[in-house]
Amino acid sequence: xxDDRSTDPRLSGNGSRTPADVKRWRRYLAxxxxxxxxxxxxxxxxxxxxxxILLALADAEQRHAQHWxxxxxxxxxxxxxxxxxxxxxxxxxxxFGGVFVLALAQRAEGRSEYAADVDATDAMxxxxxxxxEVVRGLATRGRNRLSGTFRAAVFxxxxxxxxxxxxxxxxxxxxxxxxxxxxxxxxxxxxGALSMAAGEFVSVRSQxxxxxxxxxxxxxxxxxxxxxVDANELALVYRARGMxxxxxxxxxAEMLAATGRPIVPAGTDDDHETHGTAWGAxxxxxxxxxxxxxxxxxxxxxxxxxxxxxxTATGLxxxxxxxxxxxxxxxSGTSPVTxxxxxxxxxxxxAAVTYGLGLVFGVTVG
Length: 366
Fold this sequence. Notes:
73% of the residues lie in helices and 0% in strands.
């Protein structure tokens, strides 16, 4: 579809537009204004390149808004509010910013209706697709900075919720008293938290050591000036890192002509931020596993017993699983509802199996 709408009869106000057209255009206009506000608010919390990118996205949304203003003409009316998604996104952007808002903005761009709407130009539909990729790139930066510690926190909380709920329900179903269930739950909390913390510490420390081992030695650059130009050993460095022989030779010749530069650029800090620190991951894992594992024990801490304690523990854990699943979905740019329901089904499924085994063992032992 051409972007030239000077001959569109709807722009001349001759009445060919329908009330449904006007209503839809006003909704689009409100959404574009809201999205422009989101990017502007996010830009106010950024500096440098990220700020410039977000402001450019805001300008693009304003151009789209102007398209609907031109179509509406005298029917533009008073400014309207965007849909609940756009309003919620704007509220979060004003108060928090961050990777979660970018992940939501990525989903919002992906829901654009312009590709199927005859009143939106092809360029506008293409813009929305590209905007989703731009926001995806910005969100990825934030995800990389969070992924190490956040991964430990989410996995720790979920493991604590599911494993301790299964432990408590299994022991309770086998006929153990409330005091035994409580002691078992608290023991499982401490043992699991320590195990998770130790595992995360070793895992992240090993990842960082592997990264350090792959980082070029800065002292090697000092040897470049003494290399035999005819033999050009430097080309072997680049071939070892995956370059084709001809490309390696050319790049080595360039580096020999510019002594003082590192032979291989060092990795960025993001390489290490992706994995987080070993102590940070261990501490997050310990705290979040413990907080998750505490939830199914709470009813017993407050003196509840029997089926009432079982139902209360299951209900509390269900809410927590929904929240952690939705949070993970938001961060990953997928549907928070789908992730929440999947998390709930997996967690309660594991607990149900353990509860059933506890009933069987209780009858057998009894």
